[in-house]
Amino acid sequence: MMKKILFGIKNVKKIYKMGEVSVPALRGISLKVERGEFIAITGPSGSGKSTLMHILGCLDKPTEGIFYFDGKNILEASEDNLAEIRNKKIGFVFQQFNLLGGMNALENVETPCIYAGVKKDKRIKRAKELLNKVGLEEERFSHHPNRLSGGQRQKVAIARALINNPALLLADEPTGSLDTVSGDEIIKIFQNLNKEGKTIILVTHESYIAHHARRIIHLKDGLIEEDKINNDL
Amino acid sequence: MIFELIKIAFNSLKANKLRFFLSILGIIIGVAAVIAVISIGEEATYNVKSRVSSLGSGLIIVTPGFRGGKGGKVSQEVSNVFSLELAEEIVKKSPDIDKVVPSIQKGALLKYKNNNFQARISATTPDYEKVLNCPVDEGRFLSEKDIEEYKKVAVLGKNVVTELFPEEDPLNKKIVLQTGSHKLVFQVVGVLKSKGQMMLFNFDDQVYIPVSTMMKRISGEKFVQLYLAHTDNPDRATDATKQIKFLLTRKLEDPDLFRVRNQQEIIETVGRVTSIMVLMLAGIAGISLLVGGIGIMNIMLVSVTERTREIGIRKAIGAKRKDILIQFLVESLIISITGGIIGLILGVIISALVAYFNHWPLILSSFSIVLAFIFSSGVGLIFGIYPAMKAARLNPVEALRYE
Fold this sequence. Notes:
A: alpha/beta, Rossmann fold, 4-stranded antiparallel beta sheet, 7 helices, B: alpha+beta, 2 domains, 6-stranded mixed barrel, two-stranded antiparallel sheet, 13 helices, elongated
């Protein structure tokens, strides 16, 4: 039986040391996220959004606090454990798409499967399914990222994030580099994925985008200022 | 999985072909140099050894020793011990020596009509032909009668013939031989087959005259410069050498007055000298391989820095340290092994060309090939590890932020 709670953090702090000076980016954040939630994390720049996302995405460890992800103690996990969690349980979508330039769309989507050790025919099949699902035209599967538009690139990135069927989809300003039309399209994809039960966390500073989420967490100066259910939907 | 990582490495090398070429260049040059140097060295050694062997087997060379330069006296070559009588005594008393050929070497200017040639005179006896294995091409070699009667007859080497008689048959022609204040007319009685160069001694530049003629009419001395002894059983060369040493020591009462070397010893000495040379040159070539390795390291470090963001992305989507490490290590291995293979081919071509133009046999030692190959992949591994570890250790957050 799957637990309802996907992860929980308690009093998490992140302090960057720059020479003699210590800069606290997160000053004590507690949060519980259940499976199937659609959360937007907002806040002005410098509020700690990105740092929080890096920690939730297991790219970085908190300086102190408690963090359990899917039953695993992240503070005690080794770097390879974290890599495995990122590979199998978390899918990232970035503002700058972060596709690998030397590969075509299909190969980009496949890459996490390579690190997971999935066999070639199986991962190609799954990559094609996902690209179809996010709505990338079939003839563009073999295109390299530099021949795709921003919206198309972000679709490829979403398909890549989904390939290992992660428990959590983490998106950092996914519409930040897109025009409104493609941005809306991407948001639509996220909403559909959430309807299918995928847990999604969206980091954004645009309140317009944040209002598509069902729960909005507002950060300020490394602390949660507001954590509310979005009743506007 | 490993196959996929190799494919990734290949793809990233394909993306920058010029850089790939430049980085394999160092390895190509290094490996080609090592293989060519070793192979050419072995060809040259083989060549020298076979020339020494072509002197005929069972040759023992007896040369003067040096008197120690004591007090105000300068060390000098002993010149007054090797008499013709002593030579005959050696043949008589040593059971394993069947012939001893005395020899006097001297430079001389030869003239025939308008042609002249600076040749080397070898004053010797008829046995020289057999002991040094120099068959006659035309006419005859020196005879016992020539020796007894101090005849002014000469047998010419091939180069002497081409220089003095470009268009004529040399047999029975009269040539003028000029050495020091002497100027004598000799009759050509024979021409030897070409034998070529043996280290500093070129058989084809020689003029052979009777040793008695030389001693009586030219040098006026009672001693010859050296003996060429011969044993008809080459297996007993060591014993024969000992017999000569024993005899001479007893006769001259001073082992420093002479030196006795047999052919085997000469071949071994030559072999030792050339292998030291080859080792030295191969060492220098090896250094270029090392420089090539440093080149790879340099390129890989640049590549890691340039691809920091790619590494960050790969880590974000689940690449472990070892995945990144293998990817970059495989890249440097591909560079060094490709360079190694091309260098190997190039090295073989170079040694084949050198062998071809020198009319030597092509000798490729499998040892040098294996060594160069192992060394080049080792270079890729050693100089690739640091950059690859640097890549693997990158912090994913910082790597993702890298522009």
